[in-house]
Amino acid sequence: MSYPPFPTLRGLARHAWLPMAVSISLVLQAGCSRKAPEADAAVPVIAMPVQATDGAVAGRFPGDVHARYEMPLSFRVSGQLLERYVDPGEQVKQGQALAKLDPADENKQLANARAALEAAEHRLVFATQQHDRDDAQFKQNLISQLQWQQTQDNYASALAGRDQAKQQYELAQNQLRYTTLMADHDGVITSRQADVGQVLAAGQQVFGFAWSGEREVYVDVPESRVDRIAIGQAATVSLPALPSHAYTARVREISPAADAQSHTYLVKLTVDHADASLQLGMTADVSLQAAHAAEGMVKIPATALFHQDEHPAVWVVNPSDSKLALRPVTVARYGERDVLLSDGLKAGERIVMQGVHTVSVGEKVTPIAPPHAEDAPQ
């Protein structure tokens, strides 16, 4: 029986490299068949044109609508509430009766004052007659000097008593008139604090009342930002309930002291050209303009600001080749959601709004709009 010859060492080496050579050849062929990546592929980024602003915004604050004049209504005399003619929310006219107290005591006081006045007038008539008689007799030396002086004194006393009784009678008339609560201006009843049958003290509030006409917006400003606000400062007022309306306003009053609990300052703004659609209690969004607005400023979202060696900068999209360039800018004011720039950008230039730390200089991009409308610059 014969056996095949045993392979030599050289033959074994030749057979071992054969599979390796085949594998290397397949890898090279697969690599050559793949397409090389494009070096200039555009990367999508959120980029939009910047907007110019006509002035710096000192801040945005929530507020609510009030009447220019709001006050409590109360009786000027005490008594038991007999009738109430209006309810909260009703529009009233000047001179309209709103409520009434029991006038029994005031009627008696008026009758007493009338009787006192009639008696004083009778005494004055008698004193006047006596004065005229004694005057004629004194001129004829028929009475003494002392008697004439006594007559003059009685007449002066009767005249003063009549005047005093007349004043008391008019005061009693006023007291009776004060038992009816009247509207002193056109307006609306905002609240009620008394019910029929309740005994009220003079000056105790019965209704809350707001005048018709002028409207104001009240905002609470933190103590760290109140120094940016001044009397007469302009503002823009928008209301969620009236999306199609926008009003201009000016600061009328700044509280001299902070609220003890909230530590905020109450700022009152008078609304220009307020119309009937501006209802009391509506929620408002107030944008206060800086006292000294500068021209040529642009506003960008805070997310668009990049820092290069601690210096502010933005990524600008070159309109000719859509490549990015990092440009230094000068910040005039940092806001809650936006940044006001005084130099470095012009209105209309397109910048990267979000993802500023994921791009690089010279990178080619495709600008796209923010996925949410509220993220777009306002």
Any key phrases for this structure?
3 helices, Elongation Factor Tu (Ef-tu), domain 3, elongated, conserved putative lor/sdh protein from methanococcus maripaludis s2 fold, alpha+beta, 24 strands, Beta-barrel_RND_2, MdtA-like_BSH, RND_pump_MFP, 378 residues, OB fold (Dihydrolipoamide Acetyltransferase, E2P)
Strand tally: 24
Strand content: 35-45%
CATH fold call of the largest domain:
conserved putative lor/sdh protein from methanococcus maripaludis s2 fold
Domain count: the total is 4
Helix content: 10-25%
Report the total helices. 3
CATH architecture of the largest domain: Beta Barrel
Roughly how many Å apart are the termini?
99 Å
What do the pLDDT scores average to?
85
Which outline best applies? elongated
Largest sheet: 6 strands, antiparallel, barrel
Low-confidence stretches are 6-24, 30-37
Name of the CATH first level of the largest domain: Mainly Beta
Strand order of the largest sheet: 3-12-15-14-13-16
Helix- and strand-based class?
alpha+beta
Task: Give me the Rg, rounded.
Answer: 45 Å
